[in-house]
């Protein structure tokens, strides 16, 4: 059975598995992949100076070593009959992270709504890479909303997009590249050169999914606010994430961006989205925005599949 003839139905199956099962409680493949990436980066760093061109070339080599074997193995497994279609679905399930994202965001919302700022700071630390120890309540809400919107693009829409193009191997490649960018894609002294290849690959793979995500947020949320925020968005250092957060913030009517403390240093970022600062309730609104958008993608895919079959 060819993947192309069953793609849209497989999308629905992978989506339902993520909604029903969530992320694996133990032995999560992305956690294992991250441990491998950490070990490889530390091993290379112990033997080489990772500056300039040498640092970029070694970073590129590390990306290829980590991404090519699992991608090629996924291609092989998905081509094997009769279990190839099952492999496609399992890989999509592994690549999707919508249920996990919702779970972590709601855990922040629960304690923030109750006024327990200290626990909220700890829980939002699982979602963002910035320092959270001194955040006030509006900053916790903003960081959580930003993470939900950005990861909606990475862990939901991007995975669905690449699955529709290249099946399970495409979804896997996208999520692994995104994971490397989350680990290495920093402009600090440690990763400025070594993480360059991971960051650029993630930008490339996320180029179209991010813009489709921004459109989805506009269609599901406050359309006028979303597309107005999109037009005002001119930041180019992180073009995909910035555009997604601008559109998502506009769709929710909340102001995002403004900066944060990373590794002990304040890093300013442009303000994006709407006018008012986020509140705890906006975390729920952001979760609904991503969930409704993802459900819309899946339903739309099923409708297209039925139309194709009828015609």
H and E string: HHHHHHHHHHHEEEEH
Class of secondary structure makeup = mainly alpha
Q: How many structural units, i.e. domains?
A: 1
Q: How far is the N terminus from the C terminus? A: 20 Å
Strand order of the largest sheet: 1-4
Query: What does the largest sheet look like?
Result: 2 strands, antiparallel
Low-pLDDT stretches: none
Count every beta strand, where a strand is a DSSP E run of 2 or more residues. Answer: 4
Name the overall outline. Answer: globular
Key structural traits:
311 residues; mainly alpha; two-stranded antiparallel ribbon; 12 helices; globular
Task: Give the secondary structure arrangement, pairings included.
Blueprint: H1 3-21, H2 29-45, H3 52-79, H4 84-95, H5 98-113, H6 117-124, H7 137-184, H8 196-205, H9 207-220, H10 223-232, H11 239-252, E1 255-257, E2 260-262, E3 265-267, E4 271-273, H12 280-310
Antiparallel strand pairs: 1-4, 2-3
Helix pairs in contact: 1-4, 1-7, 1-12, 2-3, 2-7, 3-4, 3-7, 4-7, 5-6, 5-7, 5-12, 6-7, 7-8, 7-9, 7-11, 7-12, 9-10, 9-11, 9-12, 10-11
């Amino acid at each position: 059975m060819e993947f192309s003839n069953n793609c849209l139905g497989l999308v629905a199956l992978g989506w339902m598995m993520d909604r029903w099962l969530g992320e694996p409680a133990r032995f999560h493949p992305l956690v294992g992949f991250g441990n491998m990436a950490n070990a490889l980066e530390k091993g290379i760093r112990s033997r080489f100076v990772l500056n300039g061109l040498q640092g970029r070339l070694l970073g590129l080599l590390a990306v290829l070593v980590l991404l090519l074997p699992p991608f090629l193995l996924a291609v092989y497994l998905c081509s094997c009959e009769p279990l190839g279609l099952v492999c496609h679905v399992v890989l999509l399930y592994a690549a999707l992270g919508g249920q996990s994202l919702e779970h972590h965001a709601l855990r922040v919302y629960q304690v923030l709504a109750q006024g327990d700022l200290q626990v909220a700071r700890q829980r939002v630390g699982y979602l963002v890479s910035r320092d959270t120890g001194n955040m006030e309540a509006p900053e916790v809400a903003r960081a959580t909303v930003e993470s939900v919107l950005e990861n909606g693009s990475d862990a939901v829409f991007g995975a669905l997009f690449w699955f529709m193009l290249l099946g399970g191997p495409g979804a896997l490649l996208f999520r692994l590249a995104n994971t490397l960018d989350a680990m290495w894609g920093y402009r600090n002294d440690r990763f400025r050169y070594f993480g360059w290849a991971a960051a650029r690959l993630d930008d490339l793979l996320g180029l179209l999914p991010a813009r489709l995500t921004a459109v989805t947020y506009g269609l599901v949320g406050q359309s006028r606010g979303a597309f107005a925020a999109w037009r005002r968005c001119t930041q180019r250092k992180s073009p995909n994430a910035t555009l997604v957060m601008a559109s998502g913030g506009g769709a929710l009517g909340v102001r995002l961006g403004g900066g944060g403390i990373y590794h002990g240093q304040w890093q300013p970022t442009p303000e994006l989205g709407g006018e008012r600062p986020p509140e705890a309730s906006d975390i729920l609104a952001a979760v609904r925005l991503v969930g409704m958008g993802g459900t819309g993608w899946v339903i739309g895919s099923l409708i297209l599949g039925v139309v194709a079959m009828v015609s």
